[in-house]
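Hey, can you fold this one?
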Amino acid sequence: MNYRTLPLLRLLLAFVSGIVVCDQASGLIPSGFGLGVAALSLLVCFLLLFNRFGESRKTRWLTGLFLLLLVFAAGIVVTQSYHIRNVNPTLVPLHGSKGWLAEVVSLPKPGAKSVRLEARVLAVEENGTFRDFNSGILLYFPLATPRLPSIGQTIAVAGSLRSVPEPLNPGAFNYKVYLARQGVHYQAWLAPGRWMVADHNPRKSLFYYSELLRQKMVNIVQRQLPDRDVQSVAAAILLGYDDLLDSELRATYSGTGAMHVLCVSGLHVGIFYAIFAALLFPLSRSKWGEATRTVLLLLLIWSYAVLTGLSPSVSRSATMFTFVALGKGFHRRTSVLNSLMASAFFLLCINPYYLFSAGFQLSFAAVAGIVTFQPVLAMAWPANNKVVVYFRDLVTVSIAAQLFTMPVTLLGFHQFPNYFLLSNMVVIPLSFLILVSGMATLALFWLPWVGQGLSWLLGFFIGLMNHLVGFIERLPGSVTHISVFGFQDALLLFVVVVGLLFWLVMKHRQGLLVALASLLLLVVSVQIQRFEYGRQQAFVVADGGKHLLLGTVLQRQASWLGSASEVPDFSIDALNRYFAVGGKQSSYKCLGLSDSLSAHFLVLDGCRVVVIDSSFKLPRGQSRLKADWVIVGSRPRIRPGWVIPRIDSARWVLASNLSEYLHEKWKKALTDQGIAFQSVKEGGAVVTPR
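Sure. Predicted structure:
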């Protein structure tokens, strides 16, 4: 392989660089900067190409440089345009609004305590009149809601809009930024009586019909497959509907490196493409048959992509197979890598923030690894027997994909599945059987005997896969948790992989030197971080949702305490990642707050901590108390003006589980008495080095 045969590679890198620069320095780049650079670069390229100066070999590099600069500026322009329209539109404060109208755009997604719907705000009421508005919103309904609004219907809601909150704990996933990149800026809890359907005639679009068809197929899956785990896996693999998957099943597949099977991606679209390409092959024998076959394949591919939700991985796969189908339709040999980069270019022009999606990154990295490294690995393992060749290809494909996706998985999930080879040898063949039997089940379920037989076969394949994946996940040492691994480490690991690519595939010896140098820097970087984390000491008051959460961190060990009876894994996992604490080095203990004095007066690593909540009382005979920390938690009944002067404290903290009313009450009392304090609800978790 020669990089000169990949003309889109340099252009794609320049375009991606423009997206990254614009995202990281969005407030520093003027709105017309990208257009100005693009216009100047285009003018220079035009002058160089159409005069004798541009024909000189010595100056040809200058034309290429300004062409790359043009594409770089195009990346900035596309990102700024998308950012203005969707990520950061001109939003005005809406907390004074009395009502709003929204159109439902998704099917219900049931959760543990509520049902979620996605919608678009169409208008807001201000001063008795409605004005146009356009922003995404997440609607949450109680599980017992008798009848939810249907997709395409418009609902009228009483009350003001609330923006998506920022994460309060360090290391927590920034859900606000994630939603903003999709054009969603608000959320609302809709209790009965707060909303009504304003338009019973839904607006019918392509996505309306695709979502209805998807819901009918999900209902078929649930009706034909009685086991809940089998239902959820079938809906995820066949239809891209993963809302039925519970956290335990997700963790099982993630821990074995088989999570990609539960996301509709290139594997699924490739099988779908291969099946229908074979079924439509007879059309290619007629005069216009090849063109007809290509058009039908494109319609089927994109219909399936729309049906499964148009996720980044599905969009990438559908776009890539579109280029493959067009190449074959025009009898042109197409490079898979060029098709892959063309599909990336196309998708990033539509939504540049796909670049920051883990699904997009994993999907493209896996395909790039398979296309480039798998042939080299296969050549090192020659075989003639078809069975041996099949298993060799399974192993080499898994290794190649894992090699390229490793920087993303270690950075995003901080774990490595040690038995990924074993799990892929199980799930890849079974996923093919599940897709074939699943499509047959959805098409023929209405036939009495045939439908039952196909449903049983589908359930058997999925049950077998769940059992085998669960068995692999329970093997000793199935997962290696990587607590120290940052962005710079992921970048260095990616350079190591690229260096190996240049050495093994493109036959450049310099690639080996780059890979070894980057690997050495990676080891040094990790060791420096381990040393720094090994010196840390901190006292933390964190956001625990409706519960109090605090703890101490010493080196790379953490002791957490909280008022929740069950371990708040979501909050503690993020905090442990931030402090590079391994799972075995983290403990949690429920405070068990009661009328007992010992429950409210704690000593943590030499710090005296007072917790004020609904059952807090001052000890009798004590006029004043000395404490290092005072934490005001949920529903304190004691008057702040009476208790504040009686505690000599170095630090006061208002916890996140205080109600809005009590938060403002304690905030005012502390301010009036001139006492400095920190609020978790306003400033995020309090992290104090010791």
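The mean pLDDT is 83. Let me know if you want another pass with a different chain boundary.
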